[in-house]
Write a structure and sequence with these properties.
By secondary structure, the protein is mainly alpha-helical. It has helices at 2-20, 42-48, 53-72, 81-91, 96-108, 113-126, 132-143, 148-159, 165-176, 181-193, 200-223. Helix 7 (132-143) runs antiparallel to helix 8 (148-159).
């Protein structure tokens, strides 16, 4: 009975700590508060959960998703997003999707490519057989850093892991194709957006980034001067009239 009460108390305390992050959201639009000062550490939440680490991780992950949703609706910035992802993955190092979603948002929305890669590499260390993690590193190296050789290297690594041969091999082929970088990036995001087996959060994210690339492509086309049409030859210039 005592252990059960202690367990429930730990979960309630962990939930209270997670819920407390909501109170700081209105302040995150202030640039000088871009800090994780108000977030508990993963180790602290882990101790407070009294062994319910996975449940606590799910709670923090739910908070992170809601927090990103608020950002998507222009309610606040993403000052606390990276901290929420760190807590989630510290509590449950084998929860793979937060590494992926978090890294993409860090690289794309926060403009912190290096941190996104570090998150994915930490995920690889904790989950060495999951092809999705090196696959995502390759994806970000191509779409964000425009580093074709690094992208191909990680796609190749992903293709050697269980379940990764088909998808990673196909994306490696994208990298080696002669298509332009913008067009290839759009093709990669489109494949993720249309993949029924992909996580719904990731599909929505892919649609968002695909729309951004489509707007960029439209701007490029609008700024490209039209190729002047060659005037038809006059009668005197026609060889058949000579």
């Amino acid at each position: 009975m005592i252990s059960r009460v202690a367990g429930i108390t730990g979960v309630v305390l962990a939930a209270a700590l997670v819920g407390a992050t909501v109170w700081v959201q209105p302040f995150t639009s202030r640039p000088y508060l871009h800090t994780n000062l108000y977030l508990p550490s993963g180790k602290f939440v882990q101790q407070a959960s009294l062994g319910y680490r996975e449940l606590a991780s799910d709670m923090v992950w739910f908070q992170a998703v809601q927090y990103y949703g608020g950002y998507a609706q222009s309610q606040h910035d993403l000052a606390y997003f990276s901290g929420l992802i760190d807590i989630t993955t510290e509590l449950d190092p084998h929860f793979v999707f937060p590494y992926i979603f978090g890294a993409v948002v860090m690289a794309q929305d926060l403009g912190d490519f290096e941190r996104g890669i570090r998150v994915l590499k930490r995920g690889m260390q904790n989950n060495p057989s999951m092809y999705e993690l090196p696959f995502e590193i390759g994806f970000l190296y191509y779409t964000v850093a425009r580093n074709d050789s690094a992208a191909a290297r990680y796609f190749d690594l992903a293709s050697r892991l269980p379940g990764g041969k088909e998808r990673a091999g196909r994306f490696a082929a994208f990298v080696y194709s002669k298509a332009g970088h913008l067009e290839t990036s759009m093709r990669m995001w489109q494949e993720i957006a249309l993949d029924d087996n992909e996580q719904p959060y990731m599909r929505e994210l892919a649609k968002h980034y695909l729309q951004k690339l489509e707007r960029e492509a439209a701007r490029r086309n609008a700024n490209t001067p039209a190729t002047p049409q060659k005037a038809p030859p006059t009668r005197g210039e026609n060889r058949n009239d000579i």
